[in-house]
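Same chain as my last thread, 337 residues:
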Amino acid sequence: MTADPSESVFILPDPLVQWPWKRILNPHYLQAKAESSAWIRSFNGILPRVQRAMDLGKIELLAALTYPLENKDVLRTCCDLMLLYTCYDEYTDVAMPHEARQLATIVMDALRNPHKPRPADECVIGEISRQFSQSSLKCVSESARRRFIEALDEYTTAVVEEAHDRAQCFIRNIDDYIILRRSTAALNATFMPIQFTLDLPDEVFDHPVIRRLTDVCSDLTILMNDMYSYNIEQARGDIHNAVIVVMHQENIGLNEAMKWVGDYCLKLVHKFLEDLCHVPSFGKEFDDQVKHYLNGMAYWMRGHDSWSFESQRYFKEGGLDIQKSRRVVLLPRESSN
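reply #2:
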């Protein structure tokens, strides 16, 4: 279902209006940005449209806003990770299913084998992934690295499934969509750098309350991102977006769908704050680390929200004004020619 042309302006909900965690910029931002930007520009073979997406997206700013509590080495790794994601997304967003599978195989082999040389004729994403994996070794604990690689495998596998949906023009219902998006958005992997300097056992992350808090942050990020990215995605004809899913499922218009998704997000915010009051003690050895992880996810939410308006990833101009007014002018559909 497409937006009614009569809805030339739509209103963005603001689910984080009462979110207790405020915007913080990591103090190591400028140094990490300079190093990470020089690193990604050192690769030959990155397509111009991919480089443009990274530049407009202010990807290093995203890392500095979403990981404000991490040290310089972890922040540099986060900058590199965000650039890797952007590069991978740009390649796979236009890939056929078999091409997406090939890219996933390349990326995971490079991540698992950081000391293995990549083939000379391979897509540049392989060498980017290898170097990222190699450099991240210096700032990640062994247990966190294992969980990180598992989460990245889940992400690349889900992106292949997304490519199948796109090829078949298949629109899922909202519940199935969120389940798939938890993986295609790479959020399990994205939250992992918050653990890099921690030494928490699997039992912490497997606890029902911690699992719920992580899932809620993941779902909030997915749905808010889809609200903010809706305009450029509908203009391209993309269907992998929660707002489009709700319009199709509920047979409602754009502003009604935005409100539906916004109300869903508000319920998630309340659920997170409620569950946060029921986090158990894991013992003196781990409680401060658990607090760091949970605060880190909460700041990730605020940072992603701020970056969405401060970069040009979703709003080419006037992002800060849109952040205040919440009014967005609907973009026309792009020509397929």
